[in-house]
From TrEMBL:
Keywords: Lyase. It comes from the Bacteria. This is Amidohydrolase family protein. The keyword Lyase applies. Residues 64-272 form the Amidohydrolase-related domain. PANTHER family: 2-AMINO-3-CARBOXYLMUCONATE-6-SEMIALDEHYDE DECARBOXYLASE, CATALYTIC_ HYDROLASE.
Length: 282
C-alpha cells in the first residue's frame, strides 16, 4: 500500500468523441472498456483524489491516422483549474501541416509544459524534417518532449519507429531540451537505459509496467546497474490503470524473491521523491 501521497507522471484526459474508432475499439478488445476507460475531467479528478495522488501530469494526444484528437484547448482548460498540482503535455501530429506553429500557439495560449509525440502511432521517423521542426519549436519554447517510444497496440502502427535508440540523435541535437520516454521504452528497456546512461537529458516513466512483473523487474535491475534510477518517474497510465493499484503493484516489485532483488528504497524513491522541476524548465 502507498504510505503517503505521490505524483502520477502519466495520466490521460479525453472525452469519448476525442478518441476515434481504433482507440475505442482496441480498448474494448484489450481491457473491456472503450478507449481504455473513462477519462473525462470529472472522472480524472475523482480518481486522483481517491488514489492519494497529490500531483499529476495530464496528457493529450493527437494521431491523425487513427482519428484521435484531444484538443490542446481541452488540456489547457483543465491545467488552468489545477495549476498548483499539475503540469500539462499537449500534442501535435508532425505528419500534419503546420504542426510546429500549432505547438507554438498552444504553449503560448495555454501554458503547456511539454508536447506528446508518438512516432510509432503517428507514423513518422524520429529523424524526419517534420519531426525536427516540432523539436526546434519545443526547444525555442523551453518545453520538454514526451515520446511514446515503445510498442503499440494499433495493428497498423509502426514498431520500426519505436526503438528508444532512434532518440539518441534527438538527445544529442537538443542537449538543452529534456526528453521523457513513456512506458520505459517497453519492451526495449535495455535500449532505454543505455540511452539514459549516455544522455543526461533523457528520462523515463514506468507507466503500464507495474502489472508486467517480469518486464518491470528487469527494467529496474537494468536501471540500477546503469545508475539511472534518479531519472525514472512513476506513472499509472490512467484510465488504463488505477493510480493507487498501479502504485501498489510497483511497490510489490521489491518483494519478489529473486537472487538480485529490487531494493525497497529504490522503488519508494521513484514513487515518492520526483518533483516536476526534475524536467520542467523554470
Amino acid at each position: 500500500m502507498p504510505e503517503r501521497t505521490f505524483t502520477d507522471w502519466h495520466t490521460h484526459i479525453y472525452l469519448p468523441e476525442h478518441l476515434g474508432p481504433v482507440w475505442t475499439d482496441r480498448g474494448t478488445e484489450l481491457v473491456g472498456r472503450p478507449g481504455f476507460g473513462a477519462a473525462d475531467l470529472g472522472e480524472h479528478s475523482r480518481v486522483m483524489a481517491a488514489s492519494g495522488v497529490e500531483k499529476f501530469l495530464i496528457i493529450g494526444l493527437q494521431v491523425a491516422r487513427i482519428g484521435m484528437f484531444v484538443p490542446n484547448e481541452f488540456v489547457g482548460a483543465y491545467l488552468a483549474d489545477n495549476r498548483e498540482r499539475a503540469i500539462a503535455v499537449g500534442s501535435v501530429d508532425p505528419t500534419q501541416p503546420g504542426a510546429a506553429d500549432q505547438l507554438r500557439l498552444a504553449v503560448r495560449e495555454y501554458g503547456l509544459h511539454g508536447v506528446k509525440l508518438s512516432p510509432p502511432y503517428q507514423g513518422f521517423h524520429p529523424h524526419s524534417d517534420e519531426a525536427y521542426a516540432v523539436y526546434r519549436a519545443a526547444a525555442d519554447l523551453g518545453i520538454f518532449l514526451m515520446f511514446h517510444q515503445a510498442s503499440v497496440f494499433a495493428p497498423d502502427g509502426f514498431n520500426e519507429y519505436a526503438s528508444p535508440t532512434l532518440l539518441d540523435k534527438v538527445a544529442r541535437d537538443f542537449r538543452d531540451t529534456n526528453l521523457l520516454l513513456a512506458h520505459f521504452g517497453k519492451p526495449w528497456m535495455n535500449e532505454c537505459v543505455e540511452l539514459m546512461m549516455k544522455n543526461r537529458n533523457v528520462f523515463a516513466d514506468v507507466s503500464t509496467l507495474p502489472i508486467k512483473t517480469w518486464q518491470m523487474y528487469n527494467g529496474l535491475r537494468l536501471a540500477i546497474e546503469g545508475h539511472v534510477t534518479d531519472r525514472l518517474v512513476f506513472g499509472s497510465d490512467f484510465p488504463s490503470f488505477d493510480p493507487k493499484e498501479a502504485a501498489e503493484d510497483f511497490l510489490a516489485i521489491s518483494e519478489l524473491a529473486m537472487p538480485l532483488p529490487i531494493p525497497r528504497a529504490v522503488v519508494e524513491d521513484i514513487l515518492y521523491n520526483r518533483s516536476f522541476d526534475l524536467i520542467v524548465n523554470k
